[in-house]
Amino acid sequence: MRPAHHPPSEAFTVVSLTEPGRALAERLLAHWPDAEHLYRPQPFQEAVQTRFQQGRRLILLCAAGIAVRTLAPALRDKYRDPAVLVMDEHGRFVVPILSGHEGGANEWARQIGQALGAQCVITGAQRYTQPLLVAGLGCNRGCPLERLLSLLDQTLNAHGLRREDLSALASIELKRDEPAMHQLAAALAVPIQFYPASILAAYGDRLSQKSEIVFRETGCHGVAEAAALAHAERLIEHPFPAELIIPKQKNPDATLAVARIYGNRD
């Protein structure tokens, strides 16, 4: 009979050993000010093991080998050990090394990756996920398909993406009867979803910019960004919010934004 799993404490500790690592830790604390930061703690192994045994999640800004050798004597099992992530000192990669599934390290790593722009490296063979991209759209009445396609291709090319990278399109309910919206979805062979202004309005605080003009016309402060975020978060069951990776872009007839979330493509 396996031991009962006790979720790790929400508190976590960041441990850095170099000056670049300390700078990265400060970036982390800007997002999570309640986190603890240990810079070159002495004695190193004792300080790290003590927090691990207290059930604190750890982000170790060091080589994976150092992390493994440090924690090995303190390991119990995957049901009780807190989540541990390793990051390189420059914040390019984030790797969950302990309690990936049971302790939530995999999902936590994705959250850290989204916040810092780091690549999340999941080494477990199960529950594989990938980034899902949703393009949110807005347009003037009677906007032709060509204007939507032009904005889409220009935006995707500028960010190193392709049409094939998109999982879905989304917009506001007011645009449900726009032929170009449905034509674009058909051209890309992806579904399109329309949301009422009441749902999009809930994303006001997460927009790159809020428009009072758009609010007066639609009841929400932005269409493209809010629609992208709203639909991304409804594609999968996910504990963390979607990320706006391309803020609102526009031409005279249309607006477009792209949001990302991690999950399984059906």
Helix and strand topology:
Blueprint: E1 12-16, H1 19-31, E2 36-39, H2 44-53, E3 57-61, H3 64-71, E4 84-87, E5 93-98, H4 105-116, E6 119-120, E7 130-139, H5 145-158, E8 166-172, H6 179-188, E9 192-195, H7 197-200, H8 212-218, H9 224-235, E10 243-250, E11 254-263
Parallel strand pairs: 1-2, 1-3, 3-4, 5-6, 7-8, 8-9
Antiparallel strand pairs: 4-5, 7-11, 10-11
Helix pairs in contact: 5-6
Protein architecture, described:
It is a single chain. The chain has helices at 19-31, 44-53, 64-71, 105-116, 145-158, 179-188, 197-200, 212-218, 224-235, and strands at residues 12-16, 36-39, 57-61, 84-87, 93-98, 119-120, 130-139, 166-172, 192-195, 243-250, 254-263. With 266 residues, it is an alpha/beta fold. It has two domains: 12-120, 3-Layer(aba) Sandwich (Rossmann fold), CATH 3.40.50; 130-263, Nucleotidyltransferase, domain 5 (2-Layer Sandwich). A six-stranded mixed sheet has the order 2-1-3-4-5-6, sandwiched between helices. The longest helix is centred in the middle third of the chain and has 14 residues, at 145-158. It starts with 11 loop residues before the first strand and ends with a strand. Residues 1-9 have low confidence and may be disordered.
